[in-house]
Amino acid sequence: MITTRLYLDTRQTKDAETPAPLKIAINWQKQAAYIFTGFKMPAAQWDTKLHKAKDKATQMSISRFKLRVDTRLAELQEAGRLDGLNASEIKKLLERELSPRRDRKKRFMECLETFAASRPQPRTTEIYLTTASRIRAFDPEADLLTFDEITIGWLDRFDSFLAITSPKKNARNIHLRNIRSVFNYALREGITTCYPFRQFLIRPEDTPKRSLSAEQLRTLFNAEVKPWQQKYIDFFKMSFMLIGMNTEDLLHAEGIVNGRLEYNRAKTHKPYSIKVEPECMALLETYRGKRYVLNVMDTYSTTKFWTAKVNKELQAICKGLGQPRVSMYWARHSWATIAAEMDIPRDTIGAALGHGGGTVTDIYINFDRNKIDRANRQVLDYVLYNKKQQDVYDLIRQLNENVANIANKAN
User: Fold this and answer.
1) What does the alpha-carbon distance between residue 307 and residue 247 come to, in Å, rounded to a whole number?
2) Can you tell me the distance from the alpha carbon of 178 to that of 164, in angstroms, rounded to the nearest whole number?
3) β-strand 31-41 against 20-28: which pairing, if any?
4) Is 310 in contact with 392 (CB distance < 8 Å)?
5) Collapsing DSSP states into helix, strand and coil, what is residue 63?
6) Could you point out which of 12, 316, 361, 375 has its C-alpha 20 to 30 Å from the C-alpha of 396?
7) 357 touches 363 (CB < 8 A)
8) Is 29 left (phi over 0), alpha (psi -120 to 50) or beta?
9) Do 273 and 245 meet the contact criterion of CB atoms below 8 Å apart?
10) CA 301, 302, 303 angle in degrees (round to 5)?
11) Of 98, 133, 91, 96, which is closest to residue 113 (Cα–Cα)?
12) Which residues belong to CATH 1.10.150 in the chain?
C-alpha cells in the first residue's frame, strides 16, 4: 500500500533558524521518494512529534497541498496508472500531474500558497498566508476562485470588507499588493492572462512622521532610566549609528571586518558595508554575542519576540520623556530625516539606506563608500555632540536662494 508523510529535510541547514524544505515522502514497496511541497520553514517552527507546522495558518496550507497529493495519488492508483512503477517513478508522475502548467484554470488560492512558500523569508511567507486567511474570511468559496473571477469589482468588495477591521488604507494595501504579486507571478508562469491591476490602482495614503528630531534623540540617548532599561535605548542607538540598520540585520550580523560591519540585507539579499564609528563600537563590545556580533540571539529563538519586546520598552521610556511612541524602525527614518536637513545629497542618503536603483549615480556611490562614511559621521557629530557646520550650510542655502532669485528676475 502506498503511504505518504510530511518530512522536513534539515540535512543542509545550519541551525534551527535556517529555513528547510518541507517534502512529502512517498513510501512504496520498501522504497521512498520525496516531493517538494514548495514550503520552507525553520526546524524551530516544525513539530517533529506531530509532523506538522506549529503555526496553524501555515499548517492549513500544507494540509491542503498534501490532500491534493493524496487525492491525485488515489485517482492514479484506481486508474491503474501506477502499476509496475517504483517509488521514484511514481514521484515523477505525480510531479507532472501536479504541475501548474497542466491546469490553465489553476485556482488562485493554490497559486497564492505556492508563491508564498517560495518566499525566502519565513516572515514574508507568513504575511502572504495572512492574506489568504483574509480572502477566505471574505469569500466562503475562496478555494474555488480562478484568476478570471478576481475582477475590479471583486477587489473593490474585498477592500470594503477589509475596511471593517482595517480602517487604515495602508494596512489594507498590504493584502492588495500581495494579490497583485501573485497575479504577476501567474503571468510570468503562463498560468493566466488576466490582470485587473491595470485599472485597479493601489494608492497609498500619507503616513504620520516616524522620525525624532536631533534634540529628541539626544534626550532619549541621555535619559536616566532604570539599569535594565538601558539596553533598549542602546539597541535603538546602535541602529541609528549604523544608518538605521534594521533589527533582523542587526541581530544576525556575524562579524566586523577592518572596522566595518559586513552583511547581506535580509530584505534585498544584497551585500552591504557600514563603517563602525567608535561610539557604536563601544556598545557592540558591551553586548557582544557568542555567534553573532550581538548577544540577543544567544537567548532568543527568533527576532520576532525581541523586536516586540524592545519596541514595547522603548515606547514606555519615550512616554515617560513626553516623546512619540517610537519603534526600532524610527531609527532609520530619523537618520534619513536629519541627513536631509543637513543638506546631505539625496543620492548619498539613498545609497546609505541601501536604496540604490542601478543608475550611474548609484553605481558611482557604491564604489565611493567614503561619501556614506562621511555622511554618517556628520549626522552622528550633530546628534551626539550638537556639532553642525551650520555656517557652511546657511551660506550654501543663501547662495542657492540668490541664484534662484536671479533666475526668476531674468525670466
Assistant:
1) 7
2) 19
3) antiparallel
4) no
5) helix
6) 361
7) no
8) left
9) no
10) 135
11) 133
12) 103-207
Q: Which three cell numbers stand for residue 356?
A: 540604490
pLDDT tens digits for the chain (411 residues)?
A: 789 999 999 888 878 888 888 999 999 888 999 988 878 888 888 998 888 888 887 888 888 888 888 988 888 888 888 888 998 989 888 887 776 544 445 689 989 998 998 887 788 888 999 999 999 999 878 888 889 889 999 999 999 999 998 888 888 999 999 999 999 999 998 888 899 999 999 988 766 677 899 999 999 999 999 999 999 999 999 999 999 998 989 998 988 989 999 888 877 778 888 999 999 999 999 999 998 999 999 888 888 888 999 999 999 999 999 998 899 999 999 999 999 999 898 888 988 887 654 443 444 444 478 889 999 999 999 999 988 755 445 555 566 676 666 666 655
Using the structure block, give the residue that is written with the C-alpha cell 538605521.
Answer: 244
- Among candidate residues 285, 327, 284, the one with its CA nearest the CA of residue 306: 327
Residues 6+ apart with CB under 8 A from 257: none
Angle at 154 between CA 59 and CA 173, to 5 degrees: 65
Distance from the Cα of residue 36 to its chain's centroid:
23
Phi/psi of residue 40, nearest 5 degrees: -135, 145
Can you name the CATH fold of 214-396?
A: hpI Integrase; Chain A (1.10.443)
Name the residue type at position 391: D
Residue 404's Cα: distance from chain center in Å?
42
| Interatomic CA distance for residues 256 and 250, integer angstroms | 12
* Dihedral over alpha carbons 273, 295, 224, 326 (to 10 degrees): 60
What pLDDT, on the 0 to 100 scale, is given for residue 264? 84
Give the Cα separation of 250 and 20 in Å (integer).
23
Report the amino acid identity of residue 332: R
pLDDT digits (tens, 9 = 90+) for 55-98: 887 888 888 888 888 988 888 888 888 888 998 989 888 887 77
Task: Classify domain 103-207 at the CATH class level.
Answer: mainly alpha
- DSSP-derived 3-state class of residue 263: strand
* Residues 16/44, Cβ–Cβ less than 8 Å: yes
User: Where in the chain are all domains bearing CATH 1.10.443?
Assistant: 214-396
SS3 8: strand
